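[09:14] KT: can someone run the structure on this one? pasting the chain below
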Amino acid sequence: MAIDPGSILFTANFTNPQPGAPAPDESFSFIATENIAAGEVITFHSPEDIGNSFFSFTVGAGGLSAFDRVTINEETNVMSLQEDPSGGSVSAVSFTDTATNWSITSTDNIIASSNGAAIAGISNRGVWDQEFAIAAPTSH
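[09:31] RB: done, structure tokens below
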């Protein structure tokens, strides 16, 4: 079953400085708005001016039910699942430019895709998180 636009919605995108830590705790969350089958892959892109960094989340054997929340934590380009009711996994971060890396900042955008199609996105402009709609393509 394909994951359609609107099947997930971002709920948070933040940087939380940790006292004494070498880097801030950066994470984002999304909720499923419908059931998502085990084995489905969602790729998260962090587009930047000089390149694109991305990694994939594979839904675990438990699948995701509507309103399940997944939280992914990043520390120095290592992604980990902080909260995932499906028992899924994340891949290593990949880069299209060696100077680009994954980092959540106060002006980041994150785009989620499945099977090459955008399904959700979020823009953090330093004031609040803004979910933006990804419209399904229309035929002309």
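[09:33] KT: thanks! Residues 136-140 have pLDDT under 50 and may be disordered.
[09:34] RB: yep, looked fine to me
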